[in-house]
Amino acid sequence: MDISEIRKLIRLVQQSDVTEIEVTEGESTVRISRQGMAAAPMMAQQPAMMAAAPVMAAPAQQATAAEAPPVEEDTENVVTSPMVGTFYAASSPDDDPFVSAGTSVKKGDVLCIVEAMKLMNEIEAEYDGTVEKVLVKNAEPLEYGQPLFVITPA
């Protein structure tokens, strides 16, 4: 199950009166439950799988919102963080970044890695295009929904 399918499940729970949903696909199981007013998605996984564990950020985002660079009004071209974690531009400190401004990407290309709860989650391009801006620095902490990249569709 990929991150876009997990996002759809999160939206389904947020937009309905459903308080919990569990989906099993192959060996992976995803359980998303809403507790009170805030949704708290959780994901169970098999030991051999590297899967994302989306976490909703607290409503109050103090200094990070003020420090974030301004983003264009067109939010459709902005790739946001699907979880709270740490941004990594490359798979190791010695490697070149996956993408930089001006890089052409295809759907499915790895843009970055977000480390969350000791899991390295690859964030992939959802469409073909060109990276216009990288909005975060390497090893910077991320909030849920924080803008990461601006990608102009091809």
Q: Which labels suit this protein?
A:
single chain, 154 residues, mainly beta, OB fold (Dihydrolipoamide Acetyltransferase, E2P), 2 domains, four-stranded antiparallel beta sheet, 38% strand, globular
Can you walk me through this structure?
This protein has helices spanning 3-14, 63-67; strands spanning 20-25, 28-35, 38-44, 78-80, 85-88, 104-105, 110-116, 119-124, 129-134, 141-142, 147-153. By secondary structure, the chain is mostly beta strands. The chain folds into 2 domains: 3-44, no CATH class; 74-153, Beta Barrel (OB fold (Dihydrolipoamide Acetyltransferase, E2P)), CATH 2.40.50. The chain has a 4-stranded antiparallel β-sheet, with no helix packed on it. A 4-stranded antiparallel β-sheet has the order 8-7-5-10, with no helix packed on it. The radius of gyration is 16 Å and the shape is globular. The protein starts with a helix and ends with a strand.
Silhouette: globular
CATH topology of the largest domain, anyone?
OB fold (Dihydrolipoamide Acetyltransferase, E2P)
Roughly what percent helix? 10-25%
The chain-level structural class is mainly beta
Major sheet strand order: 4-11-9-6
Largest sheet: 4 strands, antiparallel
